[in-house]
């Protein structure tokens, strides 16, 4: 039995930077990234806008689709993501 075993609980502990504030978020790797955005917004007190009004990017600057799961996005445990308001969002 060699190699790295997956975490048995299937959770990802992510670091989400929301407008400069660091939020620690735990999601199931099979949950959509929208869930991570919702949790990060709730934790940071930014609940005025829905998750769809925000952009989630990887450390490399890649825009992540909120419909993808953590597994589909190939996120690693401990990954840092950046959440910012979508350009032109709001009324």
UniProtKB/TrEMBL annotation:
Organism: Nocardioides alpinus
Matches recorded under InterPro entries: DUF2604
Highest taxon, organism lineage: Bacteria
Pfam families cross-referenced by the UniProt entry: DUF2604 (PF10790)
Protein name: Uncharacterized protein
